[in-house]
Design goal:
The complex is a heterodimer. By secondary structure, chain A is an alpha/beta fold. Chain A has one domain: Rossmann fold. Chain A is 35% helix and 26% strand. In chain A, helix 5 links the parallel strand 7 and strand 8. By secondary structure, chain B is mainly alpha-helical. Chain B has one domain. Chain B contains seven helices and two strands, in the order ααββααααα. Chain B has a two-stranded antiparallel ribbon with strand order 1-2. Classes of the chains: A alpha/beta, B mainly alpha. Chains A and B meet through strand 6 and helix 2 of A and helix 5 of B.
Chain lengths: 248, 176
């Protein structure tokens, strides 16, 4: 069995609403995968199911094994909701992570903290949104996990901040590290990811490598629009309906 | 994992949600316990002294024991003595739930706690201190009850004691 994170027929329902509708997906170790989809497509739900934060039907396995406390440290999570302790400083987080995650990458943590110039001894609650996101991602990258799941980690960051992130990420990731990155920023991550996965209304509707896109001469945006059957004229039609004006 | 712990504050720090001040929690606990013990001592001594004083008559400026007087039941003298422990225990219980809610305040640190390799860590950090405190309140209630009963039996004039107090006290407690 090769190393991978695998979803088989994953179904998640909130009452009558189906959030994930039989998702089948394999993410081999070492890939950087972009997870795309409109709001409510199921991106966050999919990630939360991996950690067992939400109950679901189907199976999610890590190297063929169910995800349990035994192997959960091989997965880390950065979320726009933030999972750090607001009252703790980055330094206290370092101590907490070191205590609980045996493969914690101390050197990487310190280097990233320096790079982003985050104050090591101030409580995280005093940080700006951008700094909070940075701390969240730094912790996820430093945990020592093989699979790093990021759910909209840059929400609220300015473009310069995000650019820094991509560069640093590409620079520090080791070949065995896998990233599953959920974001709306298609164009920004296009050159950073190796594969794009699209969700629509809980269904996996697209799965392509960036190499395949290059060969087809398409951008990630083209692929997403095609797969989503984006109606390019919908804005014009909507305006016409609203204003009652005839097309020229 | 073995941790060498030297002070009560250090012991607390590893058993509270990260970011909760162990120093502050220790102060609140000690104050709560001190107030509860203080209340127990003062309220019992006051009620007991009042009950004993009712056994005496004053004649010609002299206090003499009324031979027909009967001491109030232990249950009546004792009844509000342990209220402080009960209030503290209820507060500790709500504190446990608050510690759980804390992991959803300002961030979703519950996500971090739930992906720790030791799945008991979250429960340990939310409930060790409240449950240990509730256990302490229970022990103090037992010790206080025993001490108060001892005072009641040993210090009350024997002729005024109504027999079977201990049984009557427990019967009253369990509603018998």
């Amino acid at each position: 069995m090769s190393a991978m994170l695998e979803f088989k027929q994953v179904v998640k329902q909130y009452g009558n609403k189906t959030a994930l509708d039989g998702v089948n997906l394999q993410i081999p170790q070492g890939e950087i995968v972009g997870l795309f989809g409109e709001n409510g497509a199921g991106k966050t739900t999919l990630m939360k199911c991996v950690f067992g934060f939400l109950p679901y039907h189907g199976t999610i396995t890590l190297d063929g094994e169910p995800i349990t406390p035994k192997n959960i440290t091989r997965l880390s999570f950065a979320t726009c909701e933030h999972s750090f302790f607001p009252n703790l400083s980055p330094e206290s987080h370092r101590q907490f992570y070191q205590e609980h995650f045996p493969t914690f990458r101390d050197k990487r943590f310190r280097a990233l903290l320096d790079f982003f110039e985050l104050p090591a001894h101030k409580p995280a609650r005093t940080f700006s949104t951008g700094q909070k996101n940075q701390l969240e991602v730094i912790l996820a990258l430093s945990q020592g996990a093989d699979y790093i799941l990021m759910d909209e980690p840059f929400a609220g960051n300015d473009v310069f901040n995000r650019e820094d992130f991509y560069r640093v990420l590409l620079g520090i990731l080791e070949p065995s590290e896998t990233v599953l990155l959920s974001t709306h920023l298609l164009e920004e991550v296009e050159h950073f990811i190796g594969r794009a996965v699209l969700l629509q209304k809980g269904k996996l509707v697209g799965d392509v490598t960036t190499l395949e896109l290059e060969e087809q001469g398409k951008t990630l945006m083209d692929f997403v629009k095609e797969t989503y059957r984006y109606k390019a004229d919908r804005v014009v039609r909507a305006l016409k309906d609203l204003t009652g004006e005839e097309e020229p | 994992m073995y941790r060498s712990v030297h002070t009560f504050e250090e012991w607390l720090a590893f058993r509270l949600p990260p970011g909760i001040s162990a120093k502050q929690e220790r102060s609140v606990l000690i104050t709560g316990l001190a107030l509860s013990i203080g209340w127990a001592a003062l309220s019992y001594l006051y009620t007991y002294t009042m009950a004993v004083s009712r056994l005496y008559l004053t004649m010609n400026g002299q206090r003499i024991l009324d031979p027909t007087a009967r001491m109030a039941d232990f249950g009546q003298v004792f009844r509000f003595t342990t209220a402080g422990y009960l209030i503290l225990a209820v507060w500790l219980l709500t504190r446990g739930f608050w510690f759980q809610a804390y992991h959803r305040q300002g961030s979703m640190s519950i996500y971090l706690m739930r992906r720790l390799p030791d799945p008991r860590e979250y429960t340990r950090r939310c409930w060790t201190v409240p449950l240990a405190g509730i256990g302490g309140c229970l022990v103090l209630t037992v010790v206080t009850t025993a001490l108060c009963y001892l005072i009641y039996v040993k210090c009350t004039p024997a002729s005024c004691l109504v027999p079977g107090q201990w049984t009557r006290f427990w019967s009253a407690l369990v509603g018998g």
